[in-house]
TrEMBL record, chain A:
The chain crosses the membrane at residues 7-25, 45-63, 70-88, 94-116, 123-141, 153-181, 202-230, 242-262, 269-290, 296-316. InterPro entries: ABC_transp_permease. Pfam families: BPD_transp_2. Keywords: Cell membrane, Membrane, Transmembrane, Transmembrane helix. The keyword Coiled coil does not apply. It is found in: Cell membrane. It comes from Pseudooceanicola nanhaiensis. This is Sugar ABC transporter permease. Its main location: membrane. The keyword Cell membrane applies. It is a multi-pass membrane protein. GO terms for cellular component: plasma membrane.
UniProtKB/TrEMBL annotation, chain B:
GO terms for molecular function: carbohydrate binding. This is Sugar ABC transporter substrate-binding protein. Residues 1-22 form the signal peptide. It holds the Pfam family Peripla_BP_4. Residues 293-317 are annotated as: Disordered. It comes from Pseudooceanicola nanhaiensis.
Amino acid sequence: MQTLRRLAPQIVTLLAVCLLVTLFFPGFLDISMSGGRLVGPVIDILKRSAPVALLAIGMTLVIATRGIDLSVGTVIAICGAVAAWAIAGGMGLWAAVALAIGAGLLAGLWNGVLVAVIGIQPIVATLILMTAGRGIAQLITEGRILTFTDPGFAWFGSGTLFGMPVPAVIWIVTGVVMAQLMRRTALGLLVEAIGINRRASALAGVNALVLLIAVYMASGLCAALAGIITAADIRGADANNAGLWLELDAILAVVIGGNSLLGGRFSIAAALLGALIIQTIDTGILLAGFPSEYNLVIKAGLVVIILVLQSPRLATEWYFWRRSVREGPPPATTKEHAR
Amino acid sequence: MKLKTLLASTVAMTFIGLAAQAQTVGFSQIGSESGWRAAETTLTKQQAEERGIDLKFSDAQQKQENQIAAIRSFIAQGVDAILLAPVVATGWDSVLEEAKEAEIPVVLLDRRVDSSDDLYLTAVGSDLVHEGKVAGEWLVNEVGDAECRVVELQGTTGSSPAIDRKTGFEEGIAGHDNIEIVRSQTGDFTRAQGKEVMESFLQAENGGKDICALYAHNDDMAVGAIQAIKEAGLKPGEDILIVSIDAVPDIFKAMADGEANATVELTPNMAGPAFDALDAYWKDGTMPEKFIQTESKLYTPEDDPAGEYESRKDLGY
């Protein structure tokens, strides 16, 4: 019940965006079964939101520690390149997946060490890999789009599991596992403690160093999964474009999810709803058939409206307005009396 | 080593009877921004070797100051000509004047500059509007009088290839009311975006049953869209005709599999026409036209796509 109350603004927003899209494209909510798989715009959104949703899971944890991870979009490119390189080199499906995940964890370890051990500001520490990483990915692919035909690996991008697209299953399962891990154990509480006050939590006995590194590695892991999906989707690794600017969408998803960039309390489910909202807007714009010059303006306009409606200031105003309607005008006359 | 190449090229030049001694040409390339540009570099080197020209290559890594420095060093070395693929259009006046004073002809490759046209010998490039027109005309011939609803995957919004290729295609299909562009969206010239946007086109057009053809501003977006069409249970190339531009190796692979119908070549061999013009200029001072337009050749499954794939895949695309 409490969770539902926490998620209410995001759920309402998502429904409102869906309604808006339906106005412009009436068939939006149609879902049909075709050849053992569900088909429809909504299913497409669940599938297409996979990269941002996965990034948002890791990003939520990083932001909860009062950090930020700008490198995730680039880590997608690196992991995609590693996976494609391994597949094209004939190393087999599981070796490719393992190497890609290893590359993601390594990238997270690098970020985590820079932030937790050396003490560089997170935005700068992760900026290093954000800039350098695309070069690393290009070195792996030798500057071209590295393609492969392995149907087993392509399954991660376009296969189906129980009628659902595999990318959707991957992000939902990852989200549920991560949320349970955080909330069924004290881990989530400890992460929040670090975000609120790292020194105080360290003095209270929280191993901040290890936890911080672990959080950045979790973000790297999520980016690796997103990288595998992205590469499998187009059956190739495009080092120049894979995951480009997705770190910003992931941060936006976390913020739309009502999480504070100042760290502390966090909700993975809300961030995932944020990712769904972003993707619904993206897909909605494509379905509505506006000229492409409008895409970014419409997206930005909707995001501003959503963030304004969710702002704490407006929530307070709304609360007082509702109370004043219920209780009649405030007793302003008494003041005049006193004078 | 240098003497050896010099000797070998001299022999080659005398053999084809163009000049008595080997010419030296400096080539300032933008960098390796895309597969197409890598192929352009490979082909320029190949062309120079075939003609026995000693090519001095300089990679500018997408920076104009590197290109200006390279041109100055070519002038100092006293090369016989300079090839320049300019990274931006403006800011070339002074360095081009220096080359002119040194009486070294400059040939622009692929992109143009805003300088006065007496500062360079000629520019070799493709007409992007014409490319779109060739694609449009192919579609007109292919569908005849049948009704055809076309979806279009545009390049990056506002970029000149996207604007020109859109204009050209519309010119190509003008006057044929049976062909109509029903949806047009940007796919940012990438595979991933091409696939995602095509998925939404398919959803919006009755599962793709209402779409007769796809026109993509580059081959990469078409390759992504082909996957989306296959995943929607339709046959690309049959249920939906595919026409795109660039002629990169992967589209020939799709064409060999019967999944693409036509592509218009943006040839990476800009150096061939450039060297032809230079040879004529060196020989008797013939001034070429100020703009040499490369051929926008149309490739269809009749043009041995499998063979084209084999011959292109090692060019560095």
